[in-house]
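Margin note from the TA: students keep mixing up input and output lines. Inputs are the sequences; the output is the structure of the whole complex. Example:
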Amino acid sequence: MRLLIALVLALSLPSLVAAVEPDEMLDDPVLEARARVISKGLRCVVCQNQDIDSSNAGVARDLRILLRERLVAGDSDEEAVAFIVARYGDYVLLKPPFNGKTIILWFAPLILLGGGVAVGVTTLRRRQKTDKPNGLSASEELEIKQFMDAQKAGAQE
Amino acid sequence: MKRIFAFLPLVVAVVFGGFFLWGLNPDRDPNAIPSVLISQPAPQFDLDPIPDIGTPGLARNDLVGNGGPVVVNVFASWCVPCRAEHAVLTGLVERDGITLFGINYKDKQEDARRWLEELGNPYARIGSDLSGRAGIEWGISGVPETFIVGNDGTVLYRYVGPVVGEDAISKFREALIQAGALKRENS
């Protein structure tokens, strides 16, 4: 049991270790918490699919420090992010912003889903239509009636 | 209506095929980061010189009014590809008369001085970016990176990585020609 606890602790420890080094952290816990949240949404431009909060790259560290400086200087979250976006472009945002350039990105899944459903529904409808036997027309009913009458008359003979 | 639907598989195939063609194009670098600086004014920065090398420092104002486009190269002595690129840049300065400025990115000044003594100094100005802050202003992701800046201080071109090898050099020369810093060679 003790071994198990030790193992769980040992395995969970690495996930707790962040790239943020003690000397970068702000004394104000509120500002530091804001900085952590913002930096989780910013892409490291060296190791491209990692956020700067968990990256050990030099540029990521510089950006973390820069971000904290902006917050200390009184920037709002949006202003601090805008400051970095102005230098690195929308590309640094891990969540792409909603604007003219990214409109396709946001709506393509919906359009594809809608299109797929539409094609599926029309295909199914059409198949149902062709599979269902149409009712007999009046002349066909008459023809069958005449045939059956003739058969009955024949059987009675 | 049905006849139109008959073409649907073809349309889908063409759309997907076009996408794959674009995606598999060997010239496309999926790691390339689009630069926001192109066609924008160069960022504000003011860097001190490296002491004792006799080359002045570099600031935003130095980029303007040089009588033509200038090349700004971000380099460091600890950057191995920079060493290879150094010869190419020296050639551009000595043979083609390009004006070359340097940003010495996060380098120990003593190391930078020794590096320049060993390889030669083609830079007309070098700013020492000890904190890496000017690098962030330029939006660099690593060293080396090379920019072409117009006479009015507008960033015209950005090359990420070392300008080494035939492909890279011809690409960069073409950009210099487009910027008006080089004459097209008649061959």
